From TrEMBL:
The protein's name: Amidohydrolase
Organism: Fructobacillus parabroussonetiae
Keywords recorded for this protein, A-Z: Lyase
Pfam family, one: Amidohydro_2
Residue ranges constituting the Amidohydrolase-related domain according to the UniProt record: 4-306
Length: 324
């Protein structure tokens, strides 16, 4: 069955930044934060101090993954321009979102460049306290739906119907956790698509908390959620991850299968569980019918992230002789 990895990171140069400081490459796929924490960022054999497009494509091809959505995050450091280059190099395999620190002096100019000059149609807000903006802007906690600097960006993006906004707001223990803000923004901007990363960070022992968040999203058809990295979040390494199945079952009940997007959050997540297992765990479950599984594994990401290409392809398919 065809697959689109709806949450993948390329890493040309490790440039991570979060509450632990800067992330520096050590080789053999390892990296060290300024506070001394060492992590295995890249799966062994997939890159010494990088995770290139070619390394990603090798893993994807082995798992029969046709395309991927390239997202940015503070863990790796924003790889905006490299992602842009790889979309241009492999247009049939990749689409990309960009990221920006909204509190940078030139944030709006950066957004305009990526949208108007480089043609991005998706933005990723990595605001989590554990790994994103709230880890190094904790002196001033902010909400996506009320902050003036973030509001400038949304006001600008409102002029681009169909734009996709992807958000990682971390777990419920973090000050960055704000499912209410996503519901408010989806109501405010009904022509935008919103994707909440990592199934809103489910905790296996607190599934009512997950249910409460997803119930906020349910009335808004322009909110979807990706299922990436929930193995890491729940702490499962035994395929096919039965505790993850419980969380996904709740998401299917409340949002339906057309609002769920499969993804892996590689390369880091592929250091805990193999990319092959991450690619096949939903197929090994009985959560979805064949048609529903096709939506989750492929069609939903295609509809939400690749929509601009679909419009262009449809236009190109029209016989010019029929156009007045």
């Amino acid at each position: 069955m065809k697959k689109i990895d709806g949450h993948l990171h390329l890493v040309k140069t490790i440039a991570g930044l979060n509450g632990k400081g800067r992330l520096n490459a050590l080789g053999d796929g390892k990296a060290i934060w300024d506070d001394g924490t060492v992590i295995q960022l890249v799966p062994k054999g997939a890159g010494d101090d990088s995770f290139t497009a070619e390394a990603a494509l090798s893993l994807m091809d082995q798992a029969d993954v046709e395309k991927a959505v390239l997202l940015q995050g503070s863990l790796n450091g924003y790889q905006n321009y490299y992602s842009y280059q790889m979309v241009k190099k492999y247009p049939e395999r990749f689409i990309a979102a960009f990221s920006v620190d909204p509190f940078a002096d030139h944030a709006l100019a950066i957004v305009k460049r990526h949208v108007e000059d480089l043609g991005f149609r998706a933005i990723k807000f990595e605001i989590s306290q554990g790994g994103g903006l709230h880890g190094y802007h904790s002196e001033k906690p902010f909400r996506l739906d009320t902050d003036a600097k973030v509001g400038q960006i949304f006001h600008y993006l409102a002029d681009f119907p169909g734009f996709t906004v992807t958000v990682d707001y971390g777990s419920s223990e973090q000050i960055s956790y704000q499912p209410e803000a996503i519901a408010n923004l989806a109501a405010r901007y009904p022509l935008m698509d919103f994707v909440v990363c990592h199934l809103s960070f489910p905790a296996a022992d607190h599934l009512y908390r997950l249910r409460a968040a997803l119930e906020l999203f349910a009335p808004h058809p322009n909110i979807a959620t990706d299922l990436s990295a929930i193995q890491d979040i729940i702490g499962e390494t035994d395929f096919p991850y039965p505790k993850c199945h419980e969380a996904v079952a709740i998401a299917k009940e409340l949002l339906g299968p057309k609002r769920l997007i499969w993804g892996t959050d590689s390369p880091w997540s592929a250091t805990f569980n193999s990319y092959e297992n991450l690619a096949n765990w939903l197929s090994a479950s009985d959560l979805f019918s064949e048609d529903e599984l096709a939506d989750v594994l492929y069609h939903n990401a295609d509809r939400i992230y690749f929509k601009d290409r679909a419009v262009k392809a449809a236009a190109e398919a029209v016989d010019p002789a029929l156009i007045n």
